[in-house]
Each structure stands twice: as C-alpha cells, then as structure tokens.
Amino acid sequence: MQKLKVVTIGGGSSYTPELIDGFIKRYAELPVTDYYLLDIEEGKEKLEIVGKLAQRMVQQAGVPMNIHLTLDREEALKDADFVTTQLRVGFLEARITDERIPLKYGVLGQETTGPGGFMKAQRTIPVLLDICRDMEKWCPNAWLINFTNPAGIVTEAITRHSNIKTIGICSGANSMMMDIAKAYSVEKSAVDTRIIGLNHLIFADRIAIHGEDKTDDFINKLAEGSANNSLKNIPDIGFTARFAQALHMYPISYLKYFFLNREMVETAQQDAATKGTRGEQTREIEKRLFELYQDEHLNHKPKELEKRGGAWYSDTACSIISTIYNDKKEIHVVNTVNNGTTPDLPDHVTLETNAVIDKHGAHPVAYGRLPVKIRGLIQSVKAYEELTVEAAVTGDYDTALLALSINPLVPSATIAEQILDEYLDVNQRYLPQYAKDAK
C-alpha cells in the first residue's frame, strides 16, 4: 500500500479531533497511513491527551491509520505529503493580552481583526517561516495547508517568503454556506456562492440553491432577521434592515467589526468586564474539552467541540487535502495569491475567494473589478496586511506603527503607538525580530 503521510503542527490543540474525524470519514478516498501530531515541550501534556483520543477514534472506526505523537519536528516532517498548521504562539494567555490591551483605549480587542490580529501575526509569522525552512529541507514537495490565524496574513507571508506550496483555509465561508443551507432547509452541498475579499473580510454577492439564484431572497431574509449570520465567537448584533438591503451582499460576521464598530467595541468591553474576553471564555471551553478528552471511553468527536470558534473546519481542511490528492478540480473558498483575480489588488497579494483546487493547487476564479461599496475597505485592510507581514519579517518598529495606524479599526496614530508599545513590552520573548530598543 502506498504511504500517505500527514502532519499536524499544533497537534495538541483542542481542534485536532475535528481533523481526525474528517480523515476517518474520507478514508476511502484519502487513505492516510501515517498521521503525525507534532507539538512543543510546553504542549506535551495536551498532545498526549488529544493523541490518545485520536488513537481511540481511529480504533473505533476500524481504519488502518497510524497515529504518531512527537515533539521532534524532523521526525514529523520527513517525507510528509501534507502538513497542516494550527499553532498558537504564546498560547491563550497571549491571546487574552491581545484582546485586553486595545480595549483600554476603546479599540477592538479580537484575535484576528484589528490590533489583536496584528499582534498574533507578529508572533506567528517568524515561527511559520521557520517551519517552512524545515519543510524545504525535509519535505520540499509537501503541501502546507495553513489554518493558523490570522490565516490570510500568514498565507501571504508564506507565499512572499517561502518556496513551499501553500493554501490558507478558514471555516468562515463554510459557516456562511451552512447558514444559507439552514435558511432553506437544504444540505450545504446544494449551496453555491460567489465570494470575494480577504480572510475574515469576505462578501458573497451571488447565492444559488440547486442552481437557482436566491441572492435577492436571501438578502431579504437577512434584512428581516430570519437568516443567521453570526459565528460562535462573534457577538450576535445584527445590521439594520435598511443597511442589509443597501449593502445587498452577504457579509461574514467579522464585518460587523467594521460596519458596527462602536456597538461591537462596547459589547466587547462589557463582556471583558463581566464574562471575560473571548480568549478567557475559550480557556474555560478548552478546560472542559480536555476533561472530556481524558475519558478513556470517549472514542468520537464530542458535541461540545462545536462551541469553539472555527468548529467544522475539518470539512474545509480535509476536503481540500482530498481535492489536491485526488486531483478533483473542485471549487473551494481559500486564501491564495490574487494573480489577476481582481485588478483592484496587486497580483502578488493574498485574497480569499472561490478557486478551483487540483493537484497543482488553487486557481482562483476571475472576479473582475470590486464593487465600489466594498473596494475601499478591502484595499485599505490589504495595505494594513502587507505592512503587517513586512513588520513581522523585519521587526521594524516604524513599519509596525504604520500598519496599526492605517488599520480602519484604529482611530488614531497616537493610540496605535500606545497599543504597539504595550504589545511589544509584554510579548518580548516571542518577538526575537524586534530589538528591545527598537523605538
């Protein structure tokens, strides 16, 4: 039997059972023989807990997939076919700091959007580029399927600074299509959408059910409140009916941070003062999940995992790996290089859109000019993303300051500087690229 080796970096993550479940379901078309779960010393205990659950799940399913647990990057990566990443540099404690610092200044504190996403990128990009250098040594032909947030920014860093083949994925578009399917009581496979934008900044401007255009009808459902557009990790504040009709697109929930910024910041501040930031809530969810995972009788993905933001992403990750492996030429929404998809963004930058996936990778479907109602926001956020990547690679203070200052969610360059200084101070041990006297 031909070997098929898959590696997950950040294997001790609470998300791992999602992936195991996805590979088990697809074993007939994606016969993974060796699955390596890789983590670092600080994550060893969680890796062993999750790894044992993964082994029980595979045994229960009766599939001949060998689960390997390791802290040795070379052992994991050597001759791998696919590598997935779901790491969190600094663990949840760093995320909580990312969220709380901006809130002091009346600025959104969020894991991937605004200053929080910037700071996560500064910690994450150097680590992922180091992983890419190791892949170039030990598995140069492998595909890197990145789920580590901020997924679009990270994917752009890899495409700009590495030769490794990569596709960035996110569960956001998948969740949007599931919400559409629920609104029409159909399977997700019946839903077809045209999506354009950036990671966590996407819009669907065409929606069809079984090939029938339902765009106007679905927008009406959004306006009247009978369709859902809120992810688990985002406060459920709705747009007014008038705005939903005026926009006449289906925006991912993260766009509330831009279009309803004041309301969302106030809610985040209230939550932080009462039930905690999303990172603090997630810490409690993860604590309960790992208590469940230690049950020796548990041999399946627990229902409670759905409470984590990004639930169901195995459908995205495993589907894309199978599509590449089997050269299926399916259409998926992914983060990939623009390369002419729209002339309103530079060719070399990463966007999130529909793409045909085959054994050669992602081929984005041409979109054309961006509608003026979303063009400025997308271009502005993309400029911020480009500077964020440059700052993460160079450790240049001025570039970092400019990145935060031009982010639409940061109201003042003075505030940007204050946030940046606090971020750099508390994250020193994760930022070797920044000199201590960088300012």
TrEMBL record:
Binds 1 NAD(+) per subunit. GO terms for molecular function: hydrolase activity. The keyword DNA damage does not apply. Residues 196-410 form the Glycosyl hydrolase family 4 C-terminal domain. Its cofactor is NAD(+). Pfam families: Glyco_hydro_4, Glyco_hydro_4C. Belongs to the glycosyl hydrolase 4 family. This is Family 4 glycosyl hydrolase, alpha-galactosidase/6-phospho-beta-glucosidase.
